[in-house]
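Following up on my earlier thread - several people asked me to post the actual chain instead of describing it. Fair enough. Here it is, all 246 residues.
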Amino acid sequence: MEFLPPPPPPPYSPFQTNSPPASSKQHRIQQGSTPDSLRRDRGNNTQLRSKPILREPQRTNPIIWCVAIFCLFFSILLISFGIVTLIIFIDVKPRVPAFDIPAASLSVVYFYSPELLNGELVILANFSNPNRKLEVTFRYLHVDLCFGGSSIASQVIQSLSLRPKESRLIQINFLSSLVHLPSNLALELRQQEEQNRILYSIKGKFRVIVRLGLIHYSYWLHGECNIEMSSAPTGTLITHICRMKR
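Reply from S.P.:
Thanks for posting it. Predicted structure:
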């Protein structure tokens, strides 16, 4: 009977190790572990994960406390001031001062040349304070006399103060000396003078200061009056419309 030679050994590999496969290791671990020990291990791991990490509490910086207290008092003060202002506003009911022209006279209107105007207009301006409890002061009073949107004379008035419900009449004299007018406005003025109805516009700008005891506030006030005059030299006021705006 003939015997065959044994098969050659497998080739040697330097990366080959004699360690058993992972499945055999896990099998041995499972064989050496009991169900109680596995449950204890899982419980210990769960407690480690769920146990909170406590840190030592830190003290708040005193500067932060000071800033917070200051902001609190400032907010209370601001709210209180707003409530007091609202109560005063409702009780006082401030009203805008009035500017009116009850009378005016036109004595001179003539042209030195086709476009150079000479004229004189005197108005009686009425400044009144309609408020019951507020004092009003007019400052920086500047008044312009205009024709067709072009200024032909101007005046500056001294400051005046008005008590509640007080009115004051001030005479304002407008003089126009060799004032240049565009040719179209000069022609229009001649035509209105012939028709005995001349239209002027008086514009005023005032700084108004309102006072109630120690409380005061100020704003700019703009007044405009459109007046219709008869012809010079005995021109008188025919009609007028005045309005005020802030």
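Helices lie at 22-32, 35-50, 62-92, 183-195. That should answer part of your original question.
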